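Methods — Computational structure assignment.
A single polypeptide chain was analysed. Its primary sequence is given first, followed by the predicted tertiary structure written as structure tokens.
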Amino acid sequence: MADDAQNFQNPKSAFEIQRKVYCIFGDERVFNSKSPEMFSAVFKQVGLRCVYVPFMSRPEQIADAVASIRALNIAGVNVTVPHKESVIPHIDILSEGAKIIGAVNTIAWDGEALKGYNTNAIGFMDTLEEIGWEVPGKRALVFGSGGAARAVVFILNWLRAEAVYIAARNEVRAMDMADRLGGEAVALEDVSAGPVDVDLIINATSISAEDESSEFAALVADLKLEGCSLLLDLNYGRDINIWEEKAAASGVRFMDGLRPLAYQARRTFALWTGVQVEPNEFLNALEIGG
């Protein structure tokens, strides 16, 4: 997955990437994304007069949304829920990482071909490395079966986790993910029935608040954490976060999705522009510091 982790071999000149338009595709939740303000701040910081905007697209419109990249000459696109998997058939070329993971969160358009990447995986790895959390030999539990979960499960296995458990409401998708990427699918009811003996828990579902699913919130509240040292919720922006409350009640370190967002954005920025920017620029744009 080298092409997901590194910038293009020939960085573009500043002239070539002036006045380009970038965007993010998602459903109605796209308007809550921090990506527009983060990328806009970094573009300004490095002196590129580029524009980054959110576009809402319903699932049945994703083919038209991708076609608009060509029609409107959009230079690059981030892809978020629920399109990370459904966007794949409409892309010309997939990077090695995106192909293995089966999900795309970044599209680059060079005027000839649309190429899909997955920087979620490498951004998640960068986050763990930055906080000094070592994966080899550790046991992890991942909640979710969508594109974000696929990226996390892939990178945990790639970093040689001892065990990766996948719990999701859609058990068939969880089992398919385990077969494809490695790990073991476990039923949600089994997770909530007894102590959870893992070192790391990642929420890769879209649920982080009780009003998003009271049933799931009750499951999280009932979790009995044994030996867990980090609970990472890939979501952000909730006034009251059920995962953060659980971590606090259990004496477990908590982290939300802003730092992983910054690290994957840095990788995306390099793919789009050929410009390497220090992580702190993205972290500062999110006002969470380096």
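Note: Residues 122-258 form a domain with the Rossmann fold fold (CATH 3.40.50.720).
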